[in-house]
Amino acid sequence: NAGVMQNPRHLVRRRGQEARLRCSPMKGHSHVYWYRQLPEEGLKFMVYLQKENIIDESGMPKERFSAEFPKEGPSILRIQQVVRGDSAAYFCASSPLEAAGNIQYFGAGTRLSVL
Amino acid sequence: GQQLNQSPQSMFIQEGEDVSMNCTSSSIFNTWLWYKQDPGEGPVLLIALYKAGELTSNGRLTAQFGITRKDSFLNISASIPSDVGIYFCAGNNNDMRFGAGTRLTVKP
Question: What is the pLDDT of residues A49-81, one digit of tens each?
Fold first, then answer.
């Protein structure tokens, strides 16, 4: 049973380019969460999605960042016009039910470097 | 929002020593979880706690869900070099909030 799959593992972008991070949840999981982790810091919640719905995007920056989880295919975290401050590790987690009382399983992350 | 205070921030111990770390919050949580993150990897779940007062073990790891539901601790007994990593607590209600992590270094 494959775990949460994220790709790419490493992504290098120049300032102003777009970054697309993909996350395939564990089989049978329909809830996806995205987190950002800066070096030497903890995980910061960004967005919670179900299939075709954004449930909570309270942690998402208002500009340049967007997320989707289409009916078919992986969840995508998209960062437009990247800046150096976007450099971080981005983790995706999935769970089979609503987050309340349920466990999130994490992928290995995508490390974004903005030159 | 719900803030988790995790301590200590870092620990440097000798192999074989016991380790204790804890997490406190001003808010009540329904579930407490402890994760470990190895360098370059994602967090891996160690222990999940669902009831106030619950004490759960996983090998050399023991965690407790505080009776007030506002805190939790994790103990590691007889540490070994592969225990090195960052340990995160997480409190879960309708969403999950993470502590800032405890960075553990084990000297052989």
Answer: 998 899 999 999 999 999 999 989 999 999 999
Beta strands A10-13 and A110-114 are: parallel
Residues of A in contact with B6 (CB under 8 A): 42
Q: How many residues does chain A have?
A: 115
Closest C-alpha among A110, A86, A89, A105 to residue A32: A105
To test the contact with chain B by mutation, choose from A21, A92, A104 the residue with the greatest count of B C-beta atoms within 10 A, namely: A104
Q: Pick from B48, B92, B101: which is nearest to A42 by CB? A: B101
Query: Do A22 and A6 contact (CB within 8 A), yes or no?
Result: yes
Confidence of residue A98 (pLDDT cuts 50, 70, 90): low
What is the mean pLDDT of the segment spanning B29-52? 94
